[in-house]
Structure formats: structure tokens, C-alpha cells
Amino acid sequence: MPEDHPLALGGHGLSPLSDRYVLPFVQAADLVIAAGYDPIEMRAGWIDPWDPAKVIEFAATGNTHYVHQADLSFVCSVAGGLEAISDGGKIGPAESWPGGEIARLKGDLEAAFSTREEWDVTAAIEAIARAVPENVLASADTGAHRILLSQIWKCASPRGLIQSTGLCTMGCALPLAMGHKIAAPERPVIAFTGDAGLEMVLGELATLRDLGLQVVIVVFVDASLALIELKQRATGRENLGVDFGHTDFAGIADNMGGEGRVAADVETLEREIRAAFDRDGFTLIEVPVGRKAYDGRF
What we know:
Blueprint: H1 16-27, E1 32-35, E2 55-59, E3 72-75, H2 78-85, H3 101-113, H4 121-131, E4 137-140, H5 144-152, E5 161-163, H6 173-183, E6 189-194, H7 195-200, H8 204-211, E7 216-221, H9 226-234, H10 249-255, E8 259-262, H11 266-276, E9 283-288
Parallel strand pairs: 1-2, 2-3, 4-5, 4-6, 6-7, 7-9, 8-9
């Protein structure tokens, strides 16, 4: 659903920072309706996060994951189940949370994930969000940037942000974006990836060139597998196998039939994003954020 829908609260489950706000909110609910909720990759805090006695679950398959339980669990059409319990749609969101709790929670989350820095990875994502067309379709690769982007990015239409979930596959953002551009050529498309993820699928740039697709690629460059490095550090392990050298992605794009750019400040980034959607073919924008850029961000 679009994120300006009264029932929308964005995507959650991967960020400890969002869990601080969202989990108490869910636990305070009189009734939880799990509508097609698939708990793959949810953090440990989402294991049995509620009292099963106040949960109704609608799912396409039976609950054999045991990440959560529900007092009433139905294997059925999710839409049909919601239609049945809402009396044909007569019961709506206006009748729930009359104390303004949802608005406060949205405000708390927005404040928690915003930045006061002139330039960091959060400022970069916010700048891109201001510059893209409203009907843009975004894809995100796997890694630290995906977790942060999922908390900040606002989708104006359903399925406006696509990513790999159950397989958590690195290198998926670019082919996902290309496929959607082929399927809906009239819609602007942007792909977000880290440097390691793009290095895995650099050959896709040749396919992108040959197909003549207008896809904008944003590469967050930190020369590190940031999420794994962060986990190594948090658990007291040594830094091992997570740091690597810098690739000239903008130069590669230029030499593979696209347009390559580097944007290291908010003004340049906004300008380059807008220009990218005004030109034919693909544009790759390299966004240097530095190592340990995601510390304390999510």
C-alpha cells in the first residue's frame, strides 16, 4: 500500500532502532491482524512478540515456522479473510487508535532515522528521495544500505520498493530494476546497491546498455561489507574478509555505454539524480559514504 495510507507504517523487522518504537506499539494493541505476514528474516525480537490470544492470522500456507503464534489462524485468501472480518469493508481504520498513537509513532520513527549532518548516508538517501519523480520504482540490494533505505524511503504507490527478502541475495537490485523497466517502460526506475553487490553483477551493465534502458543506479561506496563488518565488531570478532579496494564505478559506466557520475554532497547528488531521469540510457551515480557509515543508523 502507499505509505500515506492511514494504515501504513512502513517496513520494519530488520532494524533494532525501529524495534524500540514499533514492538511496544504492537504489544499494546488490543488486536493484531497478521495479514499475509511472512516472518522470514525478522530479528530475534520478533519471535513471539505478542500474546497469541489477541492475534488473527490470514496466510496462504499453514504456520509451520513457529516464529509467532495466533489464537485464530486461517489458511485462505488474505484479501478474502480481511473482507470477511471487516463486514465487507464497513469497519475501517478510523475506528482504531483514537488517541493519535499512530501519528506519534510515525513522528518518532521519522525523527529517529533523520540526520543533522550535512553529508552522510542518511543525508544522501533523503536527497535522492527529494529529487526522484513521485511515481518512481526503486529496487534495493542486500546489505546495510537496504536496512537504512527501507526505514527512510517513502513509497507513493503500492510495491514502490522491491528487494530480495527470503534469499537475501546480493547483486539483485540491478536486474530487478532492469526487469521492471522492461515490464513498465513508462515508469522511472532507480536501483540502489552497495559497491560489493554491484561488483558481483558488473556484467549486467552491458545488458543494460544493449537493451537501451533508462535506469538510474546509485552505488553507495564504502569499500566494505558494512553489515558483516558491523556484526563482527559488535560480537568482538576480528575484522576479517570484509574490507576491499575501491572500484571506479563512474569510469566503468562511461566505458560501458552509460553515464558515470560521482556525487559527494547533497546539492550535487540532487542535481545528478534529476539530470539522470532527463537523459536516455543508463546513469550510474557513485555516492562515497566512507567506512563505518552505518554505525548507529539503524
